[in-house]
Amino acid sequence: MSNRLRGWHLMFASVITRLCVLIIIILLASWSIYLNYKVGYNNARLVELADGKLVATFYRMSDWFFSCFGDPVAAMQSNGGMTWSIRLFGVQITDPIAATSVFLNNGQLAFGFFIGALIPLSLALLFGRVFCSYICPASLLFFTIGRLRRLLGRFFYFPELPMNRFFAWGVLCGGVVLALVTTHGIWALILPYFAVGQTIFHAITFGVMHVAVFSILFFIVVDFALGYQFTCRHICPTGRLLGVIGAKPLVSIRRDASACIDDCHSCEQVCTFMVSPKKDETRDCSLCGECMSVCPASCLSVGTKKAIDVSSSGIVVNTDVASEV
Ligand code: SF4
Ligand code: SF4
Ligand code: SF4
């Protein structure tokens, strides 16, 4: 299989996993309603009389699903939370920024919360910024806007505002200060994925729009008006943080320098996060595979870093040789 095709596979996988994350968020919100019915009625017929057949069918299906794990209420209670801290079958996954903010506010951090924050951090150390392309519930939105911008860019002018990399750090520091003087709920307005999760949660659970919907609208306008993937590239502090933590990941994009074409820049031009595989950069790479899919020489692959390769003549020919996974 060619590396270009592998790139397409990665892109496809990244769309599927992000859709799955959205489905999980929707399910978690819906299951909190199921839990209320379970505790309140504990009877599908009563649920049907109260809220109709559709809700009763969802109740039955959820009941069947959670019964597979023993007591449905106990099984359900091992799942839950909001976007910044989700519990899936007892495993806690916590947003490191939200965890830090809670710690700064309270001076305390529950052990489970702390361990939960280690999961995304470890993921970044191993695979770089994969959260952005495979998990983030907001990234599909920005991905779609980016594609739309490119498409409409053939007919209309879209600005590209130059921005310093440090801007996102400023957003992070500003967010921490705001969280200290208000509550850590302020992150629902600052972090795009938090805003998306919160909006979905509120719409399903309470049937009302959360104020975070204005934050999403703001990011949409910013992405259209200021630059391609502007929010992810320049505003989102999580993306910047994960990019730095995963700057030298165990697995990343590798280039076969001997096959790379001198006057080609396709990989740099398509990269959402402004990474240059041509310069063997790994910082900010999310393993989305898009650069692989466009590389005319098919010389990009996903691999682990190997020891420096020295040619028989003693000249270093490529310091990052691809070792495909
Ligand atoms: S930069 Fe932020 S909003 Fe964009 S994909 Fe990454 S985590 Fe999500
Ligand atoms: S270098 Fe850019 S385009 Fe290539 S896999 Fe990484 S993030 Fe995607
Ligand atoms: S797209 Fe491929 S050939 Fe072109 S610069 Fe990047 S790695 Fe080299």
Structure description:
It is a single chain. The protein folds into 3 domains: 1-77; 83-246, no CATH class; 251-318, 2-Layer Sandwich (Alpha-Beta Plaits), CATH 3.30.70. Helix content is 58%, strand content 8%. It contains 16 helices and 7 strands. It has a 3-stranded antiparallel beta sheet with strand order 1-2-3. The chain has a two-stranded antiparallel ribbon with strand order 4-5. Strands 6-7 form a two-stranded antiparallel sheet. Helix 1 packs across helix 3. The radius of gyration is 22 Å and the shape is globular. The protein starts with a helix and ends in a 7-residue tail after the last strand. It binds iron/sulfur cluster (SF4) (3 copies). One iron/sulfur cluster binds at residues 131-132, 136, 138-139, 142, 192-193, 231-232, 236, 238-239.
Topology (SSEs and partners):
Layout: H1 3-40, H2 44-51, H3 53-67, H4 72-77, E1 80-82, E2 85-88, E3 91-94, H5 96-106, H6 111-127, H7 130-135, H8 139-152, H9 167-181, H10 187-190, H11 192-205, H12 212-225, H13 230-235, H14 237-245, E4 251-255, H15 266-270, H16 290-294, E5 300-304, E6 309-310, E7 316-318
Antiparallel strand pairs: 1-2, 2-3, 4-5, 6-7
One iron/sulfur cluster binds at residues 253, 270-273, 275, 277, 285-291.
Which features characterize this protein?
single chain, 325 residues, mainly alpha, Alpha-Beta Plaits, 7 strands, 58% helix, disordered C terminus, binds iron/sulfur cluster
